Amino acid sequence: MAQAMRPNTVGSLFATDHKPHPLQHTLLAVTLVLGVTAFVSAMFHSLHLLSSWAGLVGILTGGAGQFISETTRERFGLILGLGAAGVGLLLGMAHGGLFGGVIG
User: Fold this and answer.
1) Which domain of life does the protein's organism represent (predicted)?
2) How far apart are CA 16 and CA 72, in angstroms?
3) Residue 9 gets which letter from DSSP?
């Protein structure tokens, strides 16, 4: 009956290995913040510089985080941040791009 006392983490989406991962969690937080920033600022046409740059950097940090992530929890958050950063980047590019109005 010892197995009845253990929590079932095998099927959990947010399963963790109960070890600290400071670098992975930092990349996760940065990716989520940049993704939300890019997504929200992409809704405003005049903020295309912010949305496109935040989206680009968010995609780069999210890719690095995916490369070194160790748990499903980290990967799940990174995919959400990457998706938001990607949408923000693409809408920012459609509204003027990375250098729109600054060069030329």
Assistant:
1) Bacteria
2) 7
3) -
Q: What's the burial of 62, exposed, middle or buried (CB within 10 Å: 0-12/13-18/19+)?
A: buried
Q: How many helices (H) and strands (E) does the chain have?
A: 3, 0
Specify the pTM.
0.83
What are the tokens at 3? 């197995």
pLDDT tens digits, 26-41: 999 999 999 999 999 9
Instruction: State the Cα–Cα distance between residues 102 and 84, nearest whole angstrom.
Output: 25
Q: How far apart are CA 45 and CA 58, in angstroms?
A: 19
Q: How many CB atoms lie within 10 A of CB 30?
A: 17
Boundaries of every domain in the chain = 32-95
Question: Do residues 38 and 84 make contact, with C-beta atoms less than 8 angstroms apart?
Answer: yes
Distance CA 90, CA 70 (A): 29
